[in-house]
Amino acid sequence: MPMIDSHAKTPSKKPSSKSGASLSPKQGGAQPESRFSGLLVFMGGMVLVAVLSGLSIEPGGRIFVEGEIAGHDVTAPRDLLIEDQESTRARREMVAQSQPPIFDLAQMPFAQMARRIVSLLDVIASATPETTPQVQNLVAEELNIRIPAGMWAEWNRQSFQNMVVLEGLPWLENTYQKGVLADRRFASDITSGMIVRDLATDNEQLHLSSADFPDLDGVMRALDLHLRVNLNLPVTTRRAVEELLAPLLRPNLTLNQEATQARLTSAVQAVEPVFYQIKKGEIIVRKAERVTAEQQQKMQAFFAARDGGYDWDSFSGVLIISLIFSLGIFNAAAPPGRLLTTKDALLLASVMLTFAAMAKFVALYRFPLSRELLTMTPDIFVYSLPVAGAAGVLALFFPLLICIFSGALLAFLCTQMLHAGFDVFMFYLVGTVGCAMLLRGAQTRTDILRAGLPLLGLLLGTWAALNLLDFQSFSWFAAGAAFSAAGAMLSVLLLLAFSPVVEYLFGYTSRFKLLEMMSLEQPLLQSLMVNAPGTYHHCLIVANMAEAGAKAVGGNPLLAKVAALYHDIGKIKNPHYFIENQFGCENRHDKLAPSMSALILISHVKKGAELAAEHKLGTEITDLIQQHHGTRLIVYFYQKALKMCEEKGTECVREDDFRYPGPKPQSKEAGIILLADAIEASSRTLVDPTPSRVRNHIQNQVRTVFNEGQLDESDLSLKDLNILSETFQRILTGIFHQRIDYPKPGIHAAPTSSKSEQAKTPPPRPAPAR
After folding, report:
1. pTM of the prediction?
2. Domain 524-741+751-760 falls in which CATH fold?
3. pLDDT of residue 340
4. Start and end residues for every CATH 1.10.3210 domain found in the chain
5. Residue 475 CB partners (closer than 8 Å, separation 6+)
6. Which DSSP symbol is given to 633?
């Protein structure tokens, strides 16, 4: 008769918990959606790889640099116009030298100067005998000169002031309308003329010589000539005019550097480049000839102007092949295997894209590298690409079948990016599959190093077999063997370097990390052993049960064992509130309300998850800690609370207050730990635990958990539950094995059977629900 009635009615599901944000992606009916989203992520990565494959970045021919001896004749593959850079540069320099500078003509400086002159004359005229010293000092400060006594008397004459205003200023205004430079010497080297832009009208005029415009010294000389010839003024008056006006003159024709540079740049850019034509078939450089700078320029022009259109055929072919392999990868991950999540798909796509880009990079740079070793062809370098190491990284986190499909796809993508042949594809394929198989049982990082020697032998043997199919020379064979060995070493280094990076970036917990966490030297286990020895002993038994159960039903035994070791670490905070740590002492729950006792029991799940996050145990362990009670009801304290309410006649308690927050188990490992935890804890109440009683107890517990719906969201089937019951029975029967009653020293009474002795022992009190 089956242990569980498959038609039994499953109770309605209770609300999951308040901690829904920490649920794993696979929840209830969301499983198909999760798988579909992972497929979309992976295909998105494959689209990027296909886009990369269609890019034409590999050089179309060999470019010999200046001074190098050409290894072969280089001929023009087509007609091409090539720019004569020297002639173009010479024409542009000629245009730049002949570009006239731009000068701005402004009338504002003369207006300001005229106002200052009139203002000074008014100040001079306003001086009285008493204020003359003060006014004289003021004017001297304004002009920044020392005023002789005779000069002041000349300035103070009304006739002088009238002459300056009526004769001098009109003449200066007429001169300033044409433009006045600051100093002619700065414009004497301008041979291309000058453009004068009137700021008032924005008109421009081209003047071929700067001699058309006077500077400040020239204006003063011309003014002196005007006063002497036209006005017939004595020298003292002319000198007085010069001393008054010279400090106040300012230029109104200034160079506009910004406009000049903009005009120069525009003119240079307007110059058409000079081209000359090379006909198709024309020899650019002959074999054994030393390459000149001009010949190098021609080769660069040809290869830079080659047709670099996008290769849509390569894009389509890579995308279709990737689709086919994707179906294989995701079908290999389908139940009863491991379901690929979005995180898994992102890791796979990242590895594919990274190594495809690496292969594309090698395709670009292997040609220049081949010049260093003349005995080798460029294709020899591709054997050092550590493609096998990429498959090894995946083997640390995925099942073997997924790694085989992924390795085959990776080998195809790298071969396509390199434009290599069948031999390179076979080399990569054997390396990826072989590395994945070698690391299938790796338990420590030392195992990775030990796998390096077999991987080296595998790659060297593959290279030797491929070389025998088309033997070329011993130098070629030796070179290939050297680069194959380099690829093996790089693969091992890649494994050691990037496996911790993948763990950190993607949140994986590798076998190495799980094995390190099993060490009894771990701080959390040490604390659990010292502060909660009963809980520690319970965790050891549950770990053995979970490991055996996971092996029996195809789960991850290492993950189940490690998670079971840590599943009750939250009890470290309040160990004496859990019965396994009381050791016959007073039960502290006797003085607490049932709701408070339930709250303390429930809190150990949350505290355990917090400790796991604090000690960086990984998301997988943290999730299993949160799920190891599911949303089960704490029956002992719930019934106690109901009884107290009936006695007091108060309102009934809420059932949700006595339930664990969950979530329900989301994986086989979580379901196994929940069952093992419940069975081991409740088995402590068995009186005379015979094999039949242990079997009945296990079946009752499994049936109860199943009927509560706690396993609805896990991958455990009814067949798995029957297998787990048998596995747990063997372990618990071994724990509760019978022992003979050894006689006490000095007493020769007949030994009492252990069964009768156990019958006399009063049964232990019921333990509070865990």
Report:
1. 0.52
2. Hypothetical protein af1432 (1.10.3210)
3. 73
4. 524-741+751-760
5. 375, 376
6. B
